[in-house]
Prior knowledge:
The protein is mainly α. The chain has a domain at 7-45. It is built from three helices and two strands. It has helices at residues 7-17, 23-41, 75-79, and strands at residues 85-86, 89-90. A two-stranded antiparallel ribbon has the order 1-2. Strand 1 (85-86) and strand 2 form a beta hairpin. The longest helix is centred in the middle third of the chain and has 19 residues, at 23-41. The termini are far apart. 0% of the residues are buried.
Amino acid sequence: MSVLIDEKMLDHLGVLSKLELKEEERKKTCEDIGDMLKYIDKLNELDTEGVDPLVQIIPMENVFRQDKISNKNEKDKMLANAPQKKDGQYVVPRTI
């Protein structure tokens, strides 16, 4: 599959990339993009049957602990170190 880059497509790419090309740059850009697409198209020739997709080069694992759900009422423990408390709640400065 070969994709030709014509003036219309180059204009569209210019809008998407927000680039304004001078007239002398347009022809060279068409050739360069065409060459890149031909090079990328060569990847279709590779036999990738049975090859798993590579997501990460370095094996990674989650180092965080699993969340454990508990419905314990530990209000007294949470309030134990509060500088000020009143009626089982934290006392904080008024914010306006």
